[in-house]
Structures are given as C-alpha cells and as structure tokens.
Amino acid sequence: MNIQALAQEIPEQGEQAFEGIDFITDGEQYLTFILGKEQYGVDILCVEEIRSWEKPTRIPNSPDYVKGVINMRGIIVPIIDLRQKFSIGKTYYAATTVVIVLTTEHELKKRTIGFVVDAVSDVLNAEENEIKPAPAFGGCIPQHYIDGLVNVDENVITLLNVQELQTLEPHQLLSQ
Amino acid sequence: MSVDLSQFIPSFLEESFEGLELMESSLLTLEAGDNETIHSIFRAAHSIKGGAGTFGFNEVTEFTHLVETLLDEMRDGRREINQQDIEILLESVDCIRLLIESARDGEPCEDEKIAKTSALLTETLNATKTESPSDESPVSTEDNGAENLTYWKIQFLPEHQLVQTGNDPLLLFNALADLGEVTLHANADELPPLTEMHAEELYLNWHIDLVSTCSEDDIKEIFEWVEDECELIIHKASPQKQEATEHTASVASKLTSTDTLQSKTPSQAQPAPASRSNDKKSTAKPKTEVGSIRVGVDKVDSLINLVGELVITQSMLSELGSDFDMTKLDKLTSGLEQLLQNTKELQESVMRIRMLPISFAFNRFPRLIHDLSKKTGKSIELVIKGEQTELDKTVMEQIGDPLVHLVRNAADHGIEPAETRLAAGKPEQGTITLDAYHQGGNIVIEISDDGGGINRQAVLTKAIEKGIVEPNASLSDAQVFDLLFEPGFSTAKEVSDISGRGVGMDVVKRNIQALGGRIQVESEQGKGSTFKVNLPLTLAILDGQLVRVGEEVYIIPLIAIVESLQVEPKLVNRASGDMVLYRLREDNVPVLPVYQLFNLPADNTNINESLLVVVEADGQKVGLMVDDLLAQQQVVIKSLKDNYQQVEGVSGATILGDGSVAMILDIQGMINIALQRAQREQRNIEKVAS
User: Fold this and answer.
1) Of A72, B163, B652, B687, which one's alpha carbon is 20 to 30 angstroms from that of B279?
2) In terms of domains, do B115 and B210 share one?
3) Is the same domain home to B531 and B546?
C-alpha cells in the first residue's frame, strides 16, 4: 500500500478543512508579533508559551529593559521588554501587552526568557528563498539580531535570531 | 541476536569505581598473611576485568589482567607480599581508574603512566616467573614470537537458550580474536525447520581454530561466563592436523559458513556496544553528567509511608471541601495542620535522600597521606573521626578538592621533619586529624595537625612585603591567619611539588564561600594548626527572614543575621565624610540602605526612623536598612543563573507562598557593591581635588 496514493485520495472537503492553517510546508514557521508599528517574527519552535503581562519581581541594578523575573510553574524566568531594548514604540502595559516566552538550547543548557511585545499577530510560513538579508542602513536594531526580512503582502516582517536575543549583556553596577 | 549492552555501562562504571576504592583502601591496610584482604582485592579486580571484557573496554581488560595475575600469585602464596609490590598495585589502581575514565569518555588514554606501570608489572611478574610453577603467561596478548605458537581446537556447543541469558557469542569470539588468529566454522546442522524455529534460541555451534601463544586457562577464562550453558572441548592440535580440519571444513562448506576474525591490536578492537556508548557520552562532558545516588531501602520506605499519609490527608480534605459549612471549620484547621506536618516531613525525607555520609569524601585521604608521607619522607598518621556525619551530595562533591588542598598543606607545611619533631620533644610520627560533626544547621569539618603551627611573624612580614598590610598595622591573630587566604600568598620557603605555589588557599576559600560556607584558622606556634570549615548541610533550602523594601520583598539568610533592631537616633553617627555608622555596643556598624544599593523607591529614607537588620559576612558587620520585617520561613533556593546570569548582591531567588518571586540577598555581594561605589566616589573626589 502506498502512502502517496492514500494521500491523493483525501477528499476535497478535508483539504478545505485545513485551509488557512497550512500544516504542510517545506519552509520554517515563524510567530509574528508587533512592536510599535512594525512586525517581527521568531522561530515558532522556540516559543514555549504566550502569557499575559504580569508585574515581575525586579532584579537589583539591572538595565531598564530587564523588567525582572516571574514564576512560570516553578521556573524563574527573566522578562525583557523588547520595545525598550530596541527603542521602538512606547513602553506601556495594556490588555493586549503580552509576553512571548522563548526557549533555546545552547551547549546542552536550556535557557528560557520572556519578551514583552505589543501584541502577537500571526503564524507565518516562509520558504528559505523568501527570506532576504536586511540592508544595513541604521535601523535601531543592531544587525546581529536580524536573520532577515520577509515580504508579506505590502508589509515587511523582520525575523529575529532567538539565540542572539537571549544573549545577555553582563550586569553593570549603575551609579546611584 | 545482539543484546544492547550499552545500557549496562553506567552500572558497570559505578561498580568499577567502587571496586577500585575498595582495592585502594584494602591495599593500604594489607599485611602479609592477610588472606581475606587479598581475596577481596582479587575479587574486585576480577569483576572489573570481567565487566570490561563484556563491554569491550580492551585496554582495561588487558591492564587488569596483569594486576590480577600478580594478585593471584599473592593469593596462592607463590609471592611474598612486600611494600614494593603494594606500591606497584596502588599505582595500578590509579591506572585502571584512568583507563576506565577514558573508556567512559570514549577518548584514547595516552597517559604515559599506564605504559610505565604496565611495564613495571610485567617485569615484576617475570622476575618470579622462573620460580612459578604455573605456565600462565602474563605478557600482553600481542604475539611475541611465532616459535611458541600453539594450535588450539575448540568446540563450542552452546545450549539453545544461551543468548536469552544475555550472552553474545560474538563478544566471546572477539575476545578470542584478541588472543591470536581465529578461524570460525559455524555448524548449522541443528537448525530446525522454520516452522519450529524459536526466534530467541540459538541453534548453531562452532568449531574454532585458534593460533596463539596463550594457555588453556586463558581460553577457559573467556568462556568462564558461559561455562554452565555450553559444552566446551579444548585440545591442542599439531599444525598439520589443523590443516586437515580446515580441509574437511571446506569440503563441508555447503553446510558451514566460515568467518575469519583477524587478530586485532587492542586499540582497533572496539566492538559495537563500546562505540555506541562512546557516541552518547562524548557529547556530555564528565562535569555536566547526571550523577546517580544509591539510596538505602529504609529511606525509600519512609518516603512511601509519608506519601501514603499525604494521600490520606488529601482525600480527607477533599471530602471536607465537597460539602463544607462553617460548622466544620475545626476539622478544616486540623486537616490543614496535618497537611503542613506531612509536607514538612516529606520535604525532610526527600532531603535525606541527597545526604551521604562524609566518609565518601574522607575515603581518599588514607591514600593521599600514604603517598605524601612517601614523597616527603615524613611519617604521618591519619586519624579520621565522625565519618558517618551526613552531608548533601552536591556539597560533598564540591568540598573534595578544597579538603585535599588543606590536607596536603597540613602534611607539607604543617608537620615538621622527624628531626625537628624529636628536637621539640614530640613523637616522631606526625598526626593529621580529620573530624566532621554537626553544629546547628551546619556541618563543621576540621583538619588539624600537630605540626609547627603557623609562624605569625613570617605571615605578617610576608604580607607587609607584598603590600597587603600597612607596615605598622596592629592585627589580631585571626586577622593575620586570614591573610593566608589572600591571592598569591605563600610562606613556604621552598616551593615543593606538593604545595607552596601560592595559588590554592585563596581558591580554597573561594570554593568554600561559593558553597555558602566559611573557613577559620586556629594555630599555636609549636603545637599545630586547625582549619575549620563550616558548611551548610544542604544547598537547596535556606532559613530566611523576609524583609520589605518599598514594594519588593527580599530574603536575608537567617544564618547571616546578628540581630534586628529599631534605630535609636542618638546611636546614629556620621563620620569620615558622611559615612553613616550605628553604634552597636562596642562596634560601629556601617549602615547600608538597601534601597540605595539596589536603586529602588522606598517608603522610608530617613535612617532615624528605620529598621536595621545587622548582618555579618566574612567577619564584617553591616546594618541593612529595610522598611519592614516580615515572616521567617524556609525557602527553596532557585538559581538565577539558569535563565539569566549571576547578579551581584543576590545569591538566588525563591518562590513565596503567593507564587511571587523574591530575591535572596547575598550579604558579601552587597558589601562589595557598597565598597565599589565608595571607592569610585573617592576616586572622583580625588580627581576633582587635583
């Protein structure tokens, strides 16, 4: 029995049921979100969960964009405000403000960090050849954070590198 | 059919390391005529060899075989037990450990020590070989010369269920191939028709021709594990006869299949299970490997009992909750109390599982002292006390190296040479004592020697020379001895290869502090010194005082708190340029406002109306200014480093009863922040002034 053959026999109706979700794709999937007026995307496989904003516990002498830590089912997770980190848009906390919790594994160590964004928008399928390198003309996001740009209709989505996002600058003791 | 052996490798490693420890400690107490001890050493070596053979760790097998041969001669009384042989055996134990470690990590072991010791072993064995009646050949398996090659004919008729008991003929043949050239003839005569065939039974038998220098015992040893499950016929054959059999075999080639296994050099001989395990282990470095704990059945039983009670309490509470009214309030309160009790006991039991007697850390010291006294030519006795004192496994693993360093120092610098001792009217043999006991929530480990003690003046002179101390500073004894832990400080007149390179004591102190412990020195010139290491029993739980600063809740480790008090304005002083001091009886305690250190908004910024928590770290007292004192409770320590990074002034975080996160303060770190800021300000002022 041939699986390919079976797949062809799936009725027309069933195909329509999948429409809009696009289960079957060759390219990567990205979770897109909004910062200020721009759209950004991160690798969907890194997304641990999406939480609503809650006030975190401050970390002493941390940079402004590190909002503090929260308790996520017994794990201490730091929260970073991407808007502040990249100086995009205004920093305010409203009902749509969400935290995207991202996990990456690096040298056998898992690292989980939450990122505050204005809103989550969509899931994007992007083939390798659709991802264009970003021109280096002074956006306020440093180049090494950016994996590339993708055109969706008339919008441009910036794909961010999760590994880079999770790299933390060492703490500096701020003067009083 | 091949059984996946790699799953048994971790337990083999664990058992081997235990066996090696046993060998080591037994060797140190071994005396002539003590047959029981030799037997136990022999058994340990034998199991390591057998296991290593099964898993294809050929280097281990080969080396251990030499050791085993030597031990065998001792066991049979063919060899006198002398100190020299024991030294060689101790060296060999080290080598086997190295070999097993490299087999575990899947890296070839290139330590020259192994070749040296192995040569030494062979030499020792050969020296008595002429007297030895046994024709066992102790030399390694490589063919040494064609002239003493023997042709062995082996008939190996295994029972049908051989493979079901976990034996794999291939491993046996591989082991044979290491002895010499092997020609295999499989006989499939007994193969039943397909319909009657059972998938897990072995229907084959083999005729094996082996050309090797080995003895019959060597061959039998390979089949040792399966001898109850097979029929084994071994006899010598002349070369001609061997050719003849080969001929008949080829005639019957329709029924038999012939494999020729070439004799391999040990490094190439890596059967499948070993290499599989290598792949798995090579990604995980030994440091990050997940350890296992052996737990006594009684501890597990008590856990199960407690969980049983917890389940009963839970069902009682849920029944109560299903139709609750205010008349049942009493029941609810008592139920909750019971729950609290159960949870606490459960927590304690779980913690106890992580507790191991400190003898695990102390066990290596008899050997260390043995080696050191040989190296330094001093006669040293080691006294170990309190080895049943229990300690958290993680703490134990990390305290090992600092302890080794302290013991080395005691042997090298502490104990004087025999002449000096005799001249001072002391017994010739020096004594180093290791003691462990519980004190409060801490464990104290004492390393004391009856040597010369620390020369206070020498330490002071050196410190002044290095510019650590002002020339005319007056220091207490404790302060002077603390100088020993300064980086780059060593008073040893000569640098020996044991200690005295000036690195170490500061590392020892740092390691101990990293574990949340502290170290103190007591010493009397001419009488000896004592190093006291104070460690928390566990790293996972901490008794804390909750305090509030502005909107934030912080936890101060209870162990650091001296006292908490309401500030009395008349005891507040300002000195040396607006430094706030609080007079606590004799002491002037510097006041550190937490809100300033951490850049927080606070309710109260006026020192005269605030609460002060006086804490102590590393001998330095400071007063932390807080807004409110809350409850005292046990908290579970969570690392900030896992997902974030080390934060100065904070040792970790915890989750409070309401689910929120609170930071645990690191007093030493907070003092450091304050010091750095003060220094920076002073520099700025100097800049402005100049």
Assistant:
1) B163
2) no
3) no
All residues at 6 or more sequence positions from B193 whose CB lies less than 8 Å from its CB, including other chains: none
B518 and B629 belong to one structural domain? no
Question: Which amino acid appears at position B159 of this protein?
Answer: E
Determine, yes or no, domain membership for B276. no
According to the per-residue pLDDT averaged within each range, which of A130-139, B248-257, B394-403 is highest? B394-403
**Short-list A35, A140, A139, CA closest to A89:** A35
Q: Which CATH superfamily is domain A28-165 in?
A: CheA-289, Domain 4 (2.40.50.180)
Residue A170's closest chain B neighbor by CA? B645
Asked whether residue B27 falls in the same domain as residue B15, the answer is yes
Number of alpha carbons in the 13 Å side-chain half-sphere of residue B251: 6
Q: Residues of B with CB below 8 A from A115's CB? A: none
Q: How many inter-chain contacts (A to B, CB under 8 Å) are there?
A: 87
ipTM of the complex: 0.78
The answer to the question of residue B141 being in a domain is no
Written as one string, the DSSP assignment of B162-184 is GGGGT--HHHHHHHHHHHEEEEE
Domain ranges (residues) in chain A:
28-165
Query: A-contacting residues of B 247-306, CB under 8 Å?
Result: 283-284, 288
Supply φ then ψ for residue A22, to 5 degrees: 50, 65
CA distance linking residue B464 with residue B483, whole number of Å:
11
> Which among A59, A77, A111 is the nearest to B647, CB-wise?
A59
Radius of gyration of chain B (CA): 34
- Classify the C-alpha dihedral B646-B533-B471-B494 as positive or negative: negative
In eight-state DSSP terms, residue A176 is: -
Residue pair B603/B550 in contact by the 8 Å Cβ criterion: yes
How confident is the model over B318-334, as pLDDT tens digits? 988 888 888 888 888 88
Three-point CA angle B165, B166, B169, nearest 5°: 105
* Residue B409 annotated among the catalytic residues of the structure: yes
| Residues of the domain holding B417 | 357-536
Task: Please list the residues that pair with B554 across neighbouring strands.
Answer: B547, B663
Tens of pLDDT, residue by residue over B424-483, are: 888 888 899 999 888 766 788 999 988 888 888 888 888 888 777 777 777 777 778 888
Number of domains in chain B: 5
| Ordered strands of the A98-106 beta sheet | A47-52, A98-106, A109-117, A75-81, A66-72
Q: Are residues B328 and B398 in the same domain?
A: no
Instruction: Among B127, B155, B178, give the residue marking a domain's end.
Output: B127
> How many Å apart are CA B78 and CA B287, to the nearest integer?
43
Q: Is residue B57 part of a domain?
A: yes
Query: B233 by DSSP, 3-state: which?
Result: strand
Q: Estimate to the nearest angstrom the gap between the alpha carbon of B163 and the chain centroid.
A: 36
